[in-house]
Structures are given as C-alpha cells and as structure tokens.
Design brief:
By secondary structure, the chain is of the alpha+beta class. The chain is built from 5 helices and 5 strands.
C-alpha cells in the first residue's frame, strides 16, 4: 500500500472539497430578509431614490450578479463613518455599509441585506457597537419606506 506525502494528501483533500456539491444554508441573524410586493427593478429604483434624496445617505452602485438573477445594491448611511473608522482605518474595508441583494424566489421578490451587526462579528470594537446601534433604525427606516411600511 502506497502512502501519500503530506503535500499529496493536502492536494487530494482540496480537490475533493472543491468537487463536492455545495449545500445551501439557511440565512442566520446576520441577514435581514424581506418579502417584497414590488418587482426587482421597481424596488431597486425605490432604494436608489431614497438614498439619493435623503441627506445622510448616498447611493453607490447597482449591478447584476449570478447572470442577472440578483440585483446588487450598495448604499451608505454616512453618519456611521466616524464610528466605523474609529475602530481602525482597516475597518474602512467594510464600507459601503449597506449591501443589498434583490432576487426572485418562489414566485416573489426577496430583499436580502447584511445586518449591520456583521461588522461587530468581523471586528469587535465599542465604536462598531455604536455604529450598529445607529445603523439599525436608519436601515429599518429605509426598508419601511421602500417596502411601503411608511
């Protein structure tokens, strides 16, 4: 019986892992998921309009992913900047602070957004805790507005 060298064993393990089918996982509490009545295009337009017209927001980008199955949006709530950067300039990589995906599932439109607390999971810091406390009501207001809750 021939034994594998450590490098060969590692290479085989990587090859097996990369060829294994990926299993979808259920979203955890780092995601905000909403069912939406609007089409993806209408919802993307509403998010863009909100971010462009609210003083403390900016709209950064809209683009398609997964062959057009997902509309990705990037928005930022500017008052979070000082608290985010207070945790270190490297934390600026987490900005923009609103990562939104729009997609169709089970015949309806879904909105998925990273919950702002993802920042404190990646980089525990008191100023990021403050940023999350300020972000939660701001992002809820955005969602309520674009989803027809206000």
């Amino acid at each position: 019986m021939k034994t594998l060298t450590p490098i060969a064993a590692f290479t085989l393990a990587i090859a097996l892992a990369l060829s294994a089918p990926l299993a979808a996982t259920e979203p955890d509490d780092h995601f905000i998921i909403r069912d939406c009545e609007q089409s993806r295009a209408d919802l993307a337009g509403a998010i863009r309009e909100y971010a462009e017209n609210e003083e403390d927001w900016i709209f950064l980008a809209e683009f398609d992913l997964a062959g057009g199955d997902i509309t990705a949006l990037k928005v930022c709530y500017l008052p979070l900047g000082p608290d985010i950067l207070d945790a270190g300039l490297h934390v600026g990589a987490m900005m923009p602070c609103g990562h939104i995906g729009l997609y169709e599932e089970d015949g309806g439109t879904k909105l998925s957004m990273l919950h702002p607390k993802f920042m404190t999971t990646l980089q525990p810091h008191p100023s990021l805790e403050r940023a999350v406390e300020n972000a939660e009501p701001a992002f809820e207001a955005l969602l309520d507005h674009v989803l027809g809750g206000s």
